[in-house]
Amino acid sequence: MQNLIKAVDKHKQLILDAERYIWKNPETGYKEYKTSAYLAEKFVSLGYELTYADGITGFYTVLDTGKKGPTVLILGELDSIICPSHPESNPETGAVHSCGHNAQCAALLGVAAALKEPGALDDLCGKIKLCAVPAEELLEIEYRTKLIEQGTIKFFGGKPEFLSRGYFDDVDVAFMVHTTTNKNFCCNRGGVGCLPKRIIYKGLASHAGGSPWAGKNALYAATCGINAVNAIRETFQEKDIIRFHPIITHGGDMVNAIPEKTEIETYIRGESFDAMKNNNARINQALIGAALSLDNNVEIIDRSGYAPYKNDPNMISLAKDALAIALPDEEFVMNDVISSGSTDMGDLSCLMPIIHPYAAGSVGKSHGNDYYVLDPERACVNSAKWQLVMLYLLLEKNAERAKNIIKEYKPLFKNKEEYLAYCDTLACSGDRIEYSDKEAKVRL
Half-sphere exposure of residue 341, counting CA atoms within 13 Å on the CB side? Predict the structure, then answer.
């Protein structure tokens, strides 16, 4: 175990160089061409054989200890967010890693490098799957919808997409370490899930000055819809942790015409699938009511997003024990809360024990214009050490700890097929109002 920790220090510069390269080349989900190629080249130079995702970014590789045992998946996320006001964002795309995924990828590379050192696998059994996965940040919904329509992807998020393709069929346990602006290494009980939505109000264009009465203003209908949802916020129960945060991505085509189409992207976040589904129906009712009031129609496209995620208690204990060994000067803080943020690690937590803890080293507001990796040694190098010790504790001694964790875990779904079938039930699309001469029929 100590040799693995020391091996990370041997490859420290490789790790820090990767963090800087990825920071300077931010790319959003399913567009991480430079990032994926850079990491792949580094993995190949270390002696790994890679399996590339078909038609999209990302890859994985498998290390076999040669001894029978479970398979542990370790992940790093490739994508950035969009924050044009960040001083180091891409001037053309607004992309920037104020999510910290650059640190994750660098740490994953450090784990990969250490595991190639002589004797690294001697005390372990089973298999280790290292995966650079795309598209954790659920954004650019219109773009990803087109990818779905083209048959390129089935899911907005990289992990459910990889899951659906069978890339994780052999996996028994999974973990990844995110970066945090908190001062300590930490973990939450879990986080909310999300249902992504596109909302398209459909009105009728007319001259905005000469004959506005002949038009049907889709922008006004959209703002009424947002206000209608705001009016029911106090009815969302605190236990459900509901979030609704829309953006208008298209408000009209020219200033001297009544807007005939207005488009909105948003999520419904919630602590459970039932909470998301039940409150989504009420939100749809408010959005449709606004369309009715202004004689518009509204197309609502609901799709499966990310499942609520639960950090397995036994995996939390594992992470705490590993940090005490790998980084005895660091404090592990357990926050007994469900975060109101979402991640597609939730999709994996429906089927296997996972943990999604946090390594310190960043400052600023997450997803904000003041976010930076201030201490890359903590965020990347120390993160790699922590992950290697978690891996070691799972797979040492005939993988007794991993086997106990797997045995005690109670998945939300019996298997991948059952889960993916459930995801299909969350999708619903189409115009929600059918107008006739005497009445309007509504579909929630």
Answer: 12
Separation between Cα atoms, residue 145 and residue 154, nearest integer Å: 9
Comparing CA positions, the residue from 43, 42, 77, 45 lying closest to residue 61 is 43
Half-sphere exposure of 436 (CA within 13 A, CB side): 5
Can you name the residues that pair with 279 across neighbouring β-strands?
none
Mean pLDDT of 246-269: 97
Nearest to 181 by CA among 19, 23, 357, 362: 362
For residue 391, which of 310, 332, 321 has the smallest C-alpha distance?
Answer: 321
Whole-angstrom distance, CA of residue 393 vs CA of residue 20: 30
Pairing of strands 440-442, 243-244: unpaired
pLDDT band at 437 (very low <50, low <70, confident <90, very high): confident
Over residues 291-301, the mean pLDDT reads: 97
DSSP string, 119-163: TTTTT--SEEEEEEE---S---HHHHHHHHHTTS-S-SSHHHHHH
- Tokens for 142, please give them: 């219109």
Type of residue at 77: E
pLDDT for 438 beyond 90: no
Domain range list for the chain: 2-191+308-412, 194-305+427-442
Whether the Cβ atoms of residue 223 and residue 334 lie closer than 8 Å to each other: no
Question: What are the tokens at 157?
Answer: 């998020």
pLDDT in tens, 91-119: 999 999 999 999 999 999 999 999 999 99
Which one of 3.90.76.10, 3.90.79.10, 3.40.630.10, 2.30.130.10 gives the CATH number of domain 2-191+308-412?
3.40.630.10
Helix or strand run (H / E) with residue 417: helix 416-425
Token pair 């995924």 is at which residue? 101
Domain 194-305+427-442 has CATH 3.30.70.360: yes
How is 59-81 classified by DSSP, letter by letter? EEEEEE-SS---EEEEEEE---E
> pLDDT digit string (tens) for 74-95?
999 999 999 999 999 999 999 9
pTM higher than the cut 0.85? yes
Residue position matching structure tokens 């329509």: 149
Rounded to the nearest 10 degrees, what angle do helices 273-293 and 218-231 cross at? 140
What is the reported pLDDT for 104?
A: 96
Alpha-carbon gap, residue 91 to 431, rounded angstroms: 37
